[in-house]
Amino acid sequence: MNIKWLRRLEISDAPMTREETSKYTDIRPDGKAVQFSFEMEAKSVITSPSGGMSIEPGFNEITGLAWSGRGTIRRVDVSVDGGSTWREATLQQPVLPVCHTRFRMPWQWNGKGTPVLQSRCVDDTGYVQPTLGQVIALRGLNGPLGSIYHLNAIQSWQVASDGKVSNVHHY
Hints:
- It contains 2 helices and 11 strands; from the N terminus they run αβββββββββαββ.
- It is mainly β.
- It has one domain (43-168): Sandwich (Immunoglobulin-like), CATH 2.60.40.
- β10 and β11 (165-168) form a beta hairpin.
- The mean pLDDT is 87.
């Protein structure tokens, strides 16, 4: 249904399309640009519970995905208090280089407060997934939240007192 046929191959040391310059160029806070930034650094995201879901007080399992364009995921930490404290999640096999890695962690929610759920991963090069503030400090504000094409900042989900989960920006 989505077959593409290669008819011609053109090699160049300069951008050939608007997308290459507008989407794969990172503008740094000092105004300098890094062109052709294709590598995705380590990133993780909690997929459950996540935006649009609702949870009940009691036992919940936090699950998600982590990946790295540099190598293999070695660890995923999960926070339920907006990054004040972290617990190591369990990685699900297989854990392979440059592939999605599933993670999970049990969590007992007492139904009080408004917890902020986050995950951060570490790959085998030692790279630690950054906070949104760290990404902005490094890359500036090229677009609404820096370059969305390489936005690998820690994702935050807030659980409201009624159990509804929504996206929040947590620097």
